[in-house]
Each structure stands twice: as C-alpha cells, then as structure tokens.
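Q: Sequence in, structure out?
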Amino acid sequence: MNFQVLAPSLSRLDELKYDTLVLTHFDDERPLTGVGGMVDWRINGRLSELVLGGFITGEFGESLLYPQQSRLPFSKILYFGLGDRSRFTSTRYREAIHNLLQTMRRIGVWSFAMCLPGSQELKMVPRQMVELFLHELQHVFIGPQYHDLNFEIGILEHPTIGREVDEQLQQFVRQFVQERHR
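A: Exactly. Output:
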C-alpha cells in the first residue's frame, strides 16, 4: 500500500501515475470547481456538457465511470455525486467515502487519486477527515482477500495541510504492514 499527498494543480495532474482519477461534485456546483474544474478544462468541457445535459446531476451517490483518452495520464475518471451541499455533514462525508470505496472495489480500482470529498465545505480538521477516510478504507478494502493487492492512492490536498495528512497516512501504512506480517 502506498499513499502520496499531492498539491492539486493542473501541472501536477499531468504528472500523476494512477489508473483512476476520482472527482466529486455537489448538485448545486455550477460551474465545476477545484480539481473537477481543472479536469473539465483539460478535457475540453466534456464534464460540463454532461452536467448541463442532465446526464450527471451531483445527486448523492450518483456515479459515472468515464473512460478518457485526453492528455491526462489516467485511463478513467470516476465521477461521484455528493448531493446537497447544505446537508453535507460528517455523517454524509462518511457515507460518501464508504459508497465511493465500495464502488471502486466493485469495479476493481486499486490505483487512484482523489481529493477528500467536500473538504472545503466541512468544518472538520483534516485529521478527522483522514481518520474517517482510513476507517472506511479499512472497512471496505482491507480484509484477508485484499492483503496481497498493491494499492496506490494519491490524496490531492493543499500543501498547508499536506504534511499533517501525509504523516497520518504513513502511520496507517506502517500499522497495516505490521498487521499483515502477524
């Protein structure tokens, strides 16, 4: 299992070596912002076309696997709806992470980059968000049947919180390796 914490920028996205990029979006987010907006710009507005055409709405739990062949290094984009921004609480965050990880497990995604969903809207410290993410990751992915898989996970977060998040993720990896060798 390998984690990296990376600053979300267009130039950084061009350099990443993950199979899948995970994008999340609220139902009232127009235009797409953050990494979603950067990716939309890079793929010539194709995501905006899907939103404007009503094909994707941002409804909670909505998902779309988008095979892409643009200049971005990912073979696919997994889009996931977060629902109503005003109802996005820590409980909803946990549900979103759980559903998103279950979706990835079902389609066999072991290498992905993502922002922590709704991190700008939640009034949680990054440590809490990462703890919930890791709890759900362990619950959904880490069991005896997945111990031999080589997970590659990139967390796209602002550099001001990157160091704290990275330390937390590396501690999780050390504990995972210790448990695996017992």
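The chain has six helices and six strands.
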